[in-house]
């Protein structure tokens, strides 16, 4: 596959951002390539296009599949190679990433904070201010995850309408923006 300048810049940037998000650069670059590609690609095409070792591509594809950002497809009868394509819907991709991060980061933190809150309440040695800070953090995360859960129930088109309202909602509710 021949990359245009714009494609190459996108793939390089996605790789840099992936590294900042805690994702291997190669994994992010492969995801970017598959996202941009108009057709599914096999591992050899990916390796050749991005000049990556075939083993690196194979490992990266497995990781992307486990996350749910790409899927395997087959193109022709008799062609035994696996072809890969990325989720093209940006909102669906975003939802997959956010849900994964929630399971890995937010849910364990909520569980810990619930345990700490119970433990601290029973502990007479814990400073009341410390108890309050733990309770405040727990309350905030519970409210935000509940809100997120409600938003996830909305159809994507409705959610996008809500998000696009942005400043209009703030103005309608009579709140002023802080500088």
UniProtKB/TrEMBL annotation:
GO molecular function: DNA binding; DNA-binding transcription factor activity
Pfam families: MarR_2
UniProt keyword terms in alphabetical order: DNA-binding, Transcription, Transcription regulation
Domain HTH marR-type positions: 22-81
Family assignment from sequence similarity: Belongs to the GbsR family.
Protein name, UniProt field: HTH-type transcriptional regulator
């Amino acid at each position: 596959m021949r990359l245009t300048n714009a494609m190459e810049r996108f793939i390089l940037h996605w790789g840099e951002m992936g590294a900042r998000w805690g994702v291997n650069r190669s994994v992010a670059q492969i995801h970017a390539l598959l996202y941009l590609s108009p057709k599914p690609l096999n591992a050899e095409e990916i390796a050749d296009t991005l000049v990556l070792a075939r083993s690196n591509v194979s490992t990266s594809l497995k990781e992307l599949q486990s996350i749910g950002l790409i899927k395997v497809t087959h193109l022709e009868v008799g062609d035994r190679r696996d072809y890969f394509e990325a989720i093209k819907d940006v909102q669906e991709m975003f939802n997959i990433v956010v849900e994964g991060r929630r399971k890995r980061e937010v849910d364990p933190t909520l569980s810990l904070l619930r345990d700490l809150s119970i433990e601290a309440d029973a502990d007479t040695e814990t400073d009341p201010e410390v108890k309050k800070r733990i309770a405040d953090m727990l309350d905030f995360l519970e409210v935000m995850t509940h809100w997120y859960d409600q938003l996830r129930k909305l159809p994507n088109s409705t959610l996008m309408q809500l998000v696009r309202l942005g400043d209009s909602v703030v103005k309608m509710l009579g709140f002023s923006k802080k500088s």
